[in-house]
Write a structure and sequence with these properties.
The complex is a heterodimer of chains A (117) and B (165).
Chain A: H1 5-16, H2 19-30, E1 33-34, H3 35-40, H4 46-58, E2 62-67, E3 70-75, H5 77-106
Antiparallel strand pairs in A: 1-3, 2-3
Chain B: E1 3-9, E2 14-21, H1 25-33, H2 35-42, E3 49-53, E4 61-67, E5 73-84, E6 88-96, E7 109-118, E8 121-130, H3 133-143, H4 154-161
Antiparallel strand pairs in B: 1-2, 2-8, 3-4, 4-5, 5-6, 6-7, 7-8
Helix pairs in contact in B: 1-2
Classes of the chains: A mainly alpha (117), B alpha+beta (165).
Domain HTH arsR-type (chain A): 1-95
Pfam families (chain A): HTH_20
InterPro entries (chain A): ArsR-like_HTH, HTH_ArsR_DNA-bd_dom, WH-like_DNA-bd_sf, WH_DNA-bd_sf
């Protein structure tokens, strides 16, 4: 299956739509955590936390590696940044529209010109 | 700067924009009701918009396209769901193929536009609720080239507060 940038965006937003997953991401961006350490931080089962970690991993937001019996996870800063950038880009488009509306409205009442022919 | 506020709600994929203009609400309404005026402001200069069909009446369908620098056309539809001249209107914004047939089953964006008079000025509030990240990406594809990206964002702030160990 070919993953398009749009599939990737869907995965990113789905992963970030959950409070616990955002919290896990905050922790693993700050440093590598084992899944069992993460699980101890939440009032839910190890399996449930592991499931959240899997969603984040599938979205490419975190990476997992094995060290002995431990599963260590850390955040992928570049992937997280791309979601925020998407919203920033939408904001930029809107700022442009507002500027153009303002410019168009300014044409309604042009300032008087001194050298009108 | 006429933009007074843009808030982005990542959880609900909602963009809310508040802008103040030195014009009466009716003037803003007229701008949005006139396809020749709206196409001057909708698309960035690199992606000019052409509104081939547009009327601000409930039940009417706006058809427009934006043209990329390479000449590729991106078509869109606005299904106008309600109007209250000159106070605002609502519509469902979706993407279309080259024959203006809707693409995908889900409506893309629910937009609510309000013009609120404040003395001689008007405050425009524009709320867009994106149905999916796919739709946000499509909007970006249509206007990608404009402007520099915002340098700072929440993640940068977070990283600044929590530098890598």
């Amino acid at each position: 299956m070919v993953e398009t940038s749009e599939d990737r965006a869907d995965g990113l937003f789905h992963a970030l739509s959950d409070r616990t997953r955002r919290d896990i991401l905050r922790r693993v961006l700050a440093g590598e955590h084992s899944v069992s350490t993460l699980a101890a931080s939440y009032d839910m089962s190890f399996a449930a936390v592991q499931k959240h970690v899997a969603v984040l991993e599938k979205a490419g937001l975190i990476t997992k590696r094995r060290k002995g019996r431990e599963q260590l996870t850390s955040g992928d800063v570049a992937a997280v940044r791309s979601v925020a950038e998407m919203l920033d880009e939408l904001e930029t488009i809107w700022r442009g529209r507002i500027d153009r509306i303002d410019a168009l409205l300014a044409h309604d009442n042009p300032p008087p010109t001194e050298n009108e022919n | 700067m006429p933009v007074t506020d843009i808030t982005k709600d990542l959880d609900n994929r909602t963009l809310t924009l508040t802008a103040r203009f030195a014009a009466p609400a009716q003037r803003l309404w007229d701008l949005y009701a006139d396809p020749r005026q709206i196409e001057q402001v909708w698309g960035p200069p690199t992606y000019p918009a052409t509104f081939v069909q547009h009327e601000l009446t409930p039940g009417s369908q706006t058809r427009y396209y934006m043209t990329s620098p390479e000449g590729e056309k991106f078509c869109g539809l606005w299904d106008i769901t309600s109007t209250d001249e000159p106070h605002g209107f609502t519509f469902i914004d979706s993407f279309a193929d080259a024959d203006f047939q809707p693409v995908g089953e889900m409506p893309s964006t629910e937009a609510t536009v309000c013009f609120t008079a404040d003395g001689d000025e008007t405050v425009m509030t524009w709320t867009s609720v994106y149905a999916s990240a796919h739709d946000m990406q499509k909007v970006l594809d249509m206007g990608m080239e404009e402007g520099a990206r915002q340098a700072t964002n929440q993640i940068d702030d977070f990283l600044a507060r929590h530098p890598a160990a």
